[in-house]
Write a structure and sequence with these properties.
The chain contains nine helices and 13 strands. The protein folds into three domains: 98 residues, 3-Layer(aba) Sandwich (Rossmann fold); 64 residues, ATP-grasp fold, A domain (Dna Ligase, domain 1, 2-Layer Sandwich); 93 residues, 2-Layer Sandwich (D-amino Acid Aminotransferase, Chain A, domain 1). It is 32% helix and 26% strand. Helix 1 crosses helix 9. A five-stranded antiparallel beta sheet has the order 11-10-9-12-13. Strands 2-1-3-4 form a four-stranded parallel beta sheet, sandwiched between helices. By secondary structure, it is of the alpha+beta class. Strand 9 and strand 10 form a beta hairpin. The two termini are 14 Å apart.
Length: 292
């Protein structure tokens, strides 16, 4: 009997190394499975050759979303995809935040501006009483296309017009907690929170990603953050079913954590920062799915 084969899916070109990969590879080294890293858009891969396909560092998916979603559909016809295509399709558009809010999850206040809408940024700020906001494409990753604008910033109207000329956009208030305390990311594998990481922006910056100078460190999630993560995952599961992995990004405002993002497609899991049990749980969960 041949070894089960697992495809860990990446992008054809990465802006930086997938830091989770070495721990995943080492965790698979003594398992009776074969893990391979392949680009999602490879023309030479036959996905029927794999018992399980796990999306990992497809960090370019938002630039070619239609093609990526078609790829998900094709893969699921031939084998098992994680996270499942229904979760990917729902999570790819940040409208999902409004779905979670309707389910009672505390979410950062969000206005969705659909492509072609005439409502300007000033009208939104007046209606909401906001004077400092963040704009982002509704389909985005890694803070791609994300900008910050104050009430008296004329570039804000232009930035929103540019975004809505290309697709839907989100308007959210800028939260002081991001600058002062950063974000907390809780990593969830097979339904269990394995660890949490604090992400803090560099001075003068509001984006927390490493490419913008942000720093990361392991932290102990608060009970309130854990409860938020559980509520977000429960609500998401009621919509798209269970998922193998997730990252819950939140920010605390006035003592209450608010959901910023629920990442179900290709989130970094910060395995090098977490305890050894985190990587082991991820590998165990993957192997269990591949050998069913």
């Amino acid at each position: 009997m041949s070894e089960p084969r697992i495809a860990f899916v990446t992008a054809p070109a990465l802006p930086h190394e997938d830091e989770d990969r070495p721990l995943i590879d080492s965790g698979l080294a003594d398992r009776a499975v074969r893990g391979e890293w392949v680009a999602w858009d490879s023309a030479t891969v036959d996905w029927r050759d794999y018992d399980l396909v796990v999306i990992r560092s497809t960090w370019d998916y938002h630039r070619r979303l239609d093609r990526f979603l078609e790829w998900c559909t094709r893969v699921e016809r031939d084998t098992t995809l994680c996270n499942p295509g229904r979760a990917v399709r729902w999570n790819a558009h940040k409208r999902y935040l409004l779905d979670l809010e309707r389910c009672g999850v505390p979410v950062v206040p969000t206005v969705l501006v659909e492509s072609g809408e005439a409502e300007g940024l000033g009208m939104i700020l007046d209606a909401r009483g906001w004077d400092d906001v963040v704009l982002k494409p509704a389909v985005s990753a890694g803070s791609f296309g994300t900008t910050r604008h104050r009430l008296d910033d004329p570039d804000g109207e232009r930035a929103l017009a540019v975004l809505t000329a290309q697709g839907d956009a989100l308007v959210q208030p800028f939260l002081d907690g991001v600058e002062s305390r950063g974000e907390t990311s809780l990593v969830v594998v097979a339904g269990t929170i394995t660890h949490a990481v604090s992400k803090v922006p560099s001075p003068g910056e509001f984006r927390v990603q490493p490419q913008f100078g942000g720093g990361e460190q392991l932290v102990e999630a608060t009970m309130a953050e854990r409860e938020l993560a559980a509520r977000a995952l429960e609500a998401a599961s009621s919509i798209v079913g269970p998922v193998l992995y997730a990252r819950v990004d939140c920010v605390t405002v006035d003592g209450e954590p608010l959901l910023m993002e629920l990442e179900l497609i290709e989130p970094a899991l910060y395995l090098p920062l977490g305890p050894p049990a985190a990587a082991a749980r991820f590998v165990d969960a993957v192997v269990e799915l591949a050998t069913r």
